Amino acid sequence: MKDQPNSDFRHDFVREPGGLKHNPALVLNADYRPLSYYPLSLWTWQEAVKAAFLDRVTILSEYEEVVRSPTTEIRIPSVVVLKDYVKPQRKVAFTRFNLFLRDEFCCQYCGSRGELTFDHVLPRARGGVTSWENVVAACSTCNLRKGSKLLKTSGMSLRKPPRKPGSEELRNMGRKFPPNHLHEAWIDFLYWDAELQE
Predict the structure, then answer these.
(1) pLDDT in tens, 64-87
(2) What is the pTM of this model?
(3) CB under 8 Å, gap of 24 or more: what pairs does 42-49 form?
């Protein structure tokens, strides 16, 4: 099935592995790196078994559980690697999620985490535009406190200046936020290139 376009593998990966119910499979690109870290590139066991049956992936690790058909028995994959390389998207979409990821899910004024909104550093009422360079994650308290004031007159300061992130930068940022559930078979593939502690 080599004639299948790479876009077949651009699935919507779930952010909460709990939503996958049972035995999700970690999906690696042909270079053995996850297609995405946040959300982590996971397939349901049904998708992983189907891809293996169609010879689109190589199974690297398996669960103890098996699935059976009238003619076949297969252990459920826990880690699969694509046989064809999927070129990562280079363009970073300007979305609320990517903005929060760039800002590490914390308010860029006070550093708090939790319920976030976004703030225009140069307020729209004063000509500010909605762009990577002018929008930051902010908690409701700081957003209300700053209001439509300029940064220098608000008595507040930014933790870092806002800028457009690169795709690799966002990818690496996502590695800082592992999901609640990490199967032991996934660890080596998620952090094999991480710097070792002395």
Answers:
(1) 999 888 888 889 999 999 999 998
(2) 0.67
(3) 42/13, 42/14, 42/17, 43/11, 43/80, 44/20, 45/76, 45/77, 47/11, 48/76, 48/77, 48/80, 49/74, 49/76, 49/77
